[in-house]
Design a protein that fits this description.
alpha+beta; 2 domains; 5 strands; Glutaredoxin; 11 helices; elongated
Length: 266
């Protein structure tokens, strides 16, 4: 912004308001002058509209470039920290794991069945499972967001189904994300999917509000919060956090970096 006012500074200098001073003193003097005499600025803009607009555009481009660089630097630093200090999600003794339990790659997701970005994350997860085959295991955890009306209910249905069969839970999970728009139909859709996957509906109704189901979801939410997962989806790949619906290539790059650092052998 200051660079966009160079022409104004020259004008002010020409009328003898400023003498020899440091940049800080100059900025302070200029700020005080403009506050006391705002017409100086408006007149300068009126007389030099093209220069002002051009200066503004250049300043915005410089600011955007600087912000993008700072963001990239922050992300690189955070990624470096995560390789050196990996996160450790809890893999419970009764965890429902998709893939070999001893796979060298572990992908944990904190997700919301109603979140549209999580539907995109579902596609990424499927691509990763297909790409790495028996080299990867996947664990689905819950982070239902309060502003998604059906999210908590969907999580409870998933857990009620999971108590009956991991395979049925996997099918329930996949169907919900593939037909996510039908969640607007609320519980009717969730019941329909539970029936489709072969769940015992009487047992689902019994377990839906059980302490076991609610405690498990709460445990997932607490772990997500501990890892700084404020939005969805959030992932942890071999200890490396990925906060957001990043493309498959981003996860592939993490895998390659883990291999390069000697932290993974495939």
């Amino acid at each position: 912004m200051f660079s966009s006012l160079k022409f104004l500074g020259l004008s002010v200098l020409c009328i003898g308001l400023f003498g020899c001073m440091s940049d800080a003193q100059f900025k302070e003097k200029l700020s005080k002058t403009l506050k006391e005499n705002p017409k100086i600025l408006t007149e300068a803009i009126e007389k030099n509209p093209v220069e002002v607009i051009t200066a503004f555009q250049n300043a915005v481009k410089e600011a955007q470039s600087s912000m993008a660089k700072n963001r990239d630097d922050d992300e690189k630093k955070q990624l470096e920290d995560s390789f050196n200090n990996p996160l450790s999600p809890v893999i419970r003794s009764d965890e429902t794991i998709r893939g070999p339990k001893d796979a060298p790659l572990t992908l944990v997701e904190y997700s919301d069945f109603e979140c549209p970005f999580c539907a995109r994350g579902f596609t990424t997860v499927m691509e990763l499972l297909n790409k790495y085959g028996n080299k990867i295991r996947f664990v689905y955890k819950h982070l239902p967001l309060s502003f998604h009306e059906q999210a908590m209910m969907a999580a409870q249905y998933y857990e009620a189904v999971r108590l009956q069969s991991p395979e049925k839970a996997f099918k329930f999970h996949d169907t919900i994300y593939k037909d996510q728009r039908k969640l607007k139909n609320g519980e009717a859709f969730l019941k329909e999917v539970a029936k489709q996957v072969g769940a015992d509906m009487k047992k689902v109704a019994k377990d839906f509000n059980s302490k076991e189901v609610l405690d498990r979801i709460e445990s997932d939410q607490q772990e997500a919060a501990k890892f700084g997962m404020q939005g969805t989806p959030g992932f942890v790949l071999n200890g490396v956090p990925v906060r957001g619906a990043y493309p498959t290539s981003h996860f592939n790059n993490i895998v390659e970096e883990l291999k390069k650092r000697g932290k993974l052998s495939l």
